[in-house]
Design goal:
This protein has 312 residues and is α/β, with parallel strands linked by helices. The chain contains ten helices and seven strands. It has a seven-stranded mixed sheet with strand order 3-2-1-4-6-5-7, sandwiched between helices.
Length: 312
């Protein structure tokens, strides 16, 4: 899978019946002019409108179109992951189904990829969305760029192109689709970016609300943790535990100093006594969590080694 020369276009779809006919028409024109094999893989992520019917009809009429139906909404990451799994060609394009991404940008993405990149992301430099979406997005992109070290402007642009080696290597689930360039950069793939056209939404409603910001924070923390500490969890939890033990111990030593050198009673500092004991216990718990994580990581590594040795 993904070894033949050509282009696979993966499109997650959720209630986009107004945009789909024009999107498919434009894609057929653009892909047909590239002079290489192509396919469109549309994943209906639990649509409640006529999107599924339109995609099913399109797949029946054109052998270049694959239609996958989820019976409920699993989210964009699950849809992309399914599309990556089914893609047959060595170049994989992803885009949204709302016609805000312009199919005419696909040749530009292909050209940039052929300069030696493994992933090229679109940059909606002139984004056609209200400021309530663009302003938080700018702050968020700067934050992710600073934390991850991947120097692109628009992590969450749906319009991207990948080599199949990237789509096979990445694990996309939950909300990790927002950080695909960061995940690829962590695995030392070459990540590039080009400005792309962005059109205002003409049909349907946006699928993103304010809760996405908080979900994004948790997803980013997960990615950073798994990248840095998945094989050495004690380095993280041990550091936190050591810090807690030091703070708690200092509190208790002060209480001993206050009692035996200053003549205070423990009752005078009862709250500090209890707090110090609690912090010490929390430190011990952090160490315990880290040790359990080390045992799990070691067991997993041994299992992977046994699988590798059993391969022909």
């Amino acid at each position: 899978m993904g070894s033949m020369t050509g282009i696979s276009v993966v499109i997650p779809v959720l209630n986009e019946e107004g945009s789909l006919p024009e999107l498919l028409r434009q894609l057929k024109v653009v892909l047909g002019e590239l002079n290489q094999p192509w396919e469109i893989i549309a994943i209906d992520d639990g649509s409640t409108d006529a999107s599924g019917t339109l995609l099913e009809e399109a797949a029946t009429e054109d052998e270049h179109i694959q239609y996958v139906q989820f019976h409920r909404n699993y989210g964009k990451s699950a849809a992309l992951n399914e599309g990556f799994r089914r893609a047959r060609y060595d170049k994989v394009v992803t885009m949204d189904a709302d016609l805000q991404d312009d199919p005419a940008e696909i040749p530009n993405l292909v050209n940039k990829l052929e300069e030696g990149y493994d992933l090229v992301s679109g940059w909606k430099r002139h984004r056609q969305d209200p400021w309530t979406k663009t302003f938080p997005s700018k702050i968020w992109n700067r934050t992710v760029r600073w934390i991850t070290g991947v120097k692109i402007h628009d992590f969450n642009c749906g319009l991207k192109i990948y080599r199949s080696s990237v789509t096979h290597a990445l694990e996309i689930y939950g909300g990790r689709h927002r950080y695909i360039p960061a995940l690829a950069g962590q695995r030392k793939f070459r990540v590039g970016e080009i400005p792309v056209k962005h059109h205002p939404r003409l049909h349907g409603k946006t699928k993103y609300g304010g809760a996405r910001f908080f979900h994004g924070i948790f997803d980013l923390l997960t990615i950073l943790f798994l990248n840095r500490f998945d094989q050495q969890p004690l380095h993280l939890f041990g550091s936190m535990g050591l810090g807690a033990l030091v703070v708690g111990t200092v509190m208790e030593l002060y209480l001993l100093y206050a009692k035996y050198l200053l003549g205070h009673s423990f009752k005078q500092h009862l709250a500090l006594l209890i707090l110090g004991v609690m912090i010490i216990l929390i430190g011990i718990q952090f160490f315990s969590i880290g040790l359990l994580g080390e045992l799990i990581a070691r067991t997993q590594q041994h299992s992977e080694n046994r699988v590798k040795r059993s391969l022909p």
